[in-house]
Amino acid sequence: MTEALPPCEFRTLDRSGVYRCAAAGDASLGPRDGELVREICGSCSVPAVLASERACLHLIAWTEIEDERSEAKFACRFFHPLYDAPWDDIGVCATCPYWFPRPPLELLPDHAEWIARMKDFYTSEGQAKDRGASTGRRLEPARYRSEAGPAQAAAALMDERGERARERRAILWGGALLAAAAVVGLVFAPSVALLWFVLLFFAVA
After folding, report:
1. Which of 82 and 127 is assigned the larger pLDDT?
2. DSSP state, 148?
3. What is the sign, positive or negative, of the torsion defined by CA atoms of 194, 198, 204, 205?
4. Cα gap 128→147, rounded to integer Å
5. In degrees rounded to 5, what are phi and psi of residue 142?
6. Confidence at 113, pLDDT banded by 50, 70, 90
7. Strands 27-31, 59-66: parallel, antiparallel or unpaired by DSSP?
8. CA 121 from chain center: how many Å?
9. C-alpha–C-alpha distance, residues 179 and 171, integer Å
10. Residue 140 and residue 157: Cα distance in Å, rounded?
11. Regarding predicted confidence, which is higher, 13 or 167?
12. φ/ψ of residue 128, rounded to 5
């Protein structure tokens, strides 16, 4: 008697009778009665992790299939910028104060989009783009990798967001002052109107 496949919300059966894995970009798992699907799904920890009590609304799960084996990967929608590699399990979530029960996959319509985003993020190019290295934002130090607990990760992320908010306020105030100076200049020194128009343009920009 053939052993039943472990239940998994990512595994679907297409019209041709071939299983596909939504956690691996709809990769083919072979026919429903084949050995390939049993080997791949049997080696995958995603179903067990998502069935655990600590599975969270913010958890993103996917898998990378290679040599007829599945390697599960996990990340957090909120705190993924603090880690330079995806997790192999969700032990880091054990004490997270932002945990919320995870609903069924059908209630997470953007999960496939987040899988693609996480796969892109966990490359050197993706991390540089997501963390804003090209615009001069500060990269998080390596100490905020897996050894950082959720509380420390949350504090670091809040600090970074506060810093960016202060930067935006400073830019807005600077633009407002520059625009005010341009308006005053247009009123009291119309002879150099071109200069004031240039200043006003940069203030708006």
Report:
1. 82
2. S
3. positive
4. 21
5. -65, -20
6. very high
7. unpaired
8. 7
9. 12
10. 9
11. 13
12. -60, -40
pLDDT tens digits, 147-200: 455 555 555 555 655 665 566 566 666 556 656 665 666 566 666 555 545 544
> Distances in Å between the alpha carbon of 32 and those of 9, 18, 37?
16, 6, 7
Nearest C-alpha neighbor of 85 from the set 124, 57, 32: 124
**Is the confidence at residue 136, as pLDDT, over 50?**
no
Structure tokens at 134: 């090209």
Measured CA to CA, the distance from residue 99 to residue 79 in angstroms comes to 12
